Amino acid sequence: MCLAVPLKVIQINGKDAVGESLGIRRDIRIDFIKDVNLGDYVIVHAGFAIEKIEEEAALENLRLIKEVADALE
Amino acid sequence: MLWNEFKKPKDIEKILSALTKYDKEIRIMEICGTHTVSIAKSGIKGILPKNIKLISGPGCPVCVTPTERIDDILFLSKNKDVLIATYGDMIRVTGSIDGTSLEKRKAEGFDIRVVYSPLDAVKIAQCCKDKEVVFIGIGFETTAPSTAIAIERAINEGVNNFSVFSLHKMVEPVLRKLINMNDFNIDGFLCPGNVAVIIGEEGFRFLEIEFKIPSVICGFEAGDIIYSIYRLIQMRENKDFKLENEYIRAVKQKGNEIARNIMNKYFEPCDDIWRGIGWIENSGLKLKDEYIQYDAVKKFNLDLNPYKNNDFCSCGEVIKGKIDPRECKLFSTVCTIENPKGPCMVSSEGACAAAYKYSD
Ligand code: SF4
Ligand code: SF4
C-alpha cells in the first residue's frame, strides 16, 4: 500500500497531480498538502501524497546520522 | 538523488560495526509493514548479531484484520448487487473456510475489483450505477484520511451507490494493549514513519511519558533503520528512555493536520477486533452517525461475526511478536508465497512473506 520512495511532482491540476520516480509516473492526489509546487517531492500512500519532503530537512536528517557516526571514533 | 543517500549514508559503516560489537540481548519491535520488508530486503537482520532481535509487531493492516471480518466481507461479496472494491493485498486473504477468498469469489463470477486509490472506487460507482460499490477501507491513520476523501467525493457528487466497509485501525491503542500484556518483553520500538507523518511525533509521545520505552520514529531506508536501532541501544545503555524522531525529513511534531481533520470529520473511534489479540477498546475507526448511509455495515444490515479466535494458523502469535514466522509449523511447508494459508504470508508487507522471500 505504501511507497517508501518520494515522488517528484511533475504536473498539477487542482487536487490531482502526477508524481514521478525513476521514469515511472503515477497519478496522485494532493488534498493533504498545502502549497504544492512543480518539482516538490512528496511521500505517497495509496495514491495520496501524505507529506512534502524538503531538501533542507533531508540534509538535517543526514547530519543527524553523521553526528552519531562521528561520535563513534 | 538526495533521498537515496539514506540507503547508505556516509559513515553508516561505523554505526553498523558498533552494532555488531554489541553483545547484550535487546528485543526491538517494528510496527510497520514497510519496515518489515525493508529490514528483510536489505539483509540487516543477517548482518546484526543474533542478540539484537528484530521482531515484527502488529504493523501490517492486512495481517491484523481478523478472520471474522474477512468472513463478513466474503459474505457480503456474494450479494449479487454488490461490487467489492479493494486494495490488491486483500484479495488473497482466506476466510475461516480453507480456500475461500475474494480472489476465489472473483473466479466464481462475483464482481471484485482491485483499486489503487479509494477514489477509484467512487469512479467505479459512478459508472456502474446498477451496482452497490463497497470499498474495503483498510489501514492505519495513514490511509483512513484517503478513505474520508472518497466519502467526501461521493457526498459532493451525489454518488449514492457507494459505501465503505471500514476496517481502519489506530496504532496507539494496540501498542498500549501489547505493552500491558503480562508477557510483554520488548525493549524498544521502531515507530512507523508513515503513521507518524499523519499523527506526528506527538502521537507517539505516550511511549516516553507513560511507559518510558525507548522509541524512535524511523524512515524506511536501510540507513534510517540502522541509525535508529543504534539509538535505541544507546538510550537503553544510558538509561535515557525517550521518544526520538529520526525521520525528520517527513515527520513533523504535530503531523499532518489537514489529513487528520478530514479523517476526524468522517470517522470516530470504536471498539474493534484484531487478529490474535481480540477486542481493543476504541482501536478502530467507524463512520460517524451523520454519514451512516456510506457505512456498508449499516447499509446492508450486516450481522458481523462475533470474535471466535479459532484460527488454525499461528498468524496471531506472529502479529503480537510472540513467535518468529519460522516457528509456525506451516511456514514454508504448507504455507508459502505461492499458496499462502495466513494473511502474514499473503500480504506483501506481512512478516511471514518477508521471512520467506528474503530468508537469511
Ligand atoms: S500501510 Fe504503510 S504505514 Fe501502514 S503498515 Fe503498511 S507500510 Fe506501514
Ligand atoms: S507461516 Fe502462514 S500460517 Fe504460519 S503464521 Fe505465517 S502466514 Fe500464518
TrEMBL record, chain A:
One of its GO terms (biological process) is protein maturation. GO terms for molecular function: carbon dioxide binding; iron ion binding. It comes from the Bacteria. InterPro entries: Hydgase_assmbl_chp_CS, Hydrogenase_HupF/HypC. NCBIfam families: hypC_hupF. PANTHER family: HYDROGENASE MATURATION FACTOR HYBG (PTHR35177). Belongs to the HupF/HypC family. This is Hydrogenase expression/formation protein HypC. It comes from Caloramator quimbayensis.
Automatic annotation (TrEMBL), chain B:
GO terms for molecular function: 4 iron, 4 sulfur cluster binding; carbon monoxide binding; iron ion binding. One of its GO terms (biological process) is protein maturation. The keyword Metal-binding applies. The keyword Cytoplasm does not apply. Keywords: Iron, Metal-binding. InterPro entries: Hyd_form_HypD (IPR002780), HypD_1 (IPR042243), HypD_2_sf (IPR042244). Belongs to the HypD family. This is Hydrogenase maturation protein HypD. It comes from Caloramator quimbayensis. The lineage of its organism: Bacteria, Bacillati, Bacillota, Clostridia, Eubacteriales.
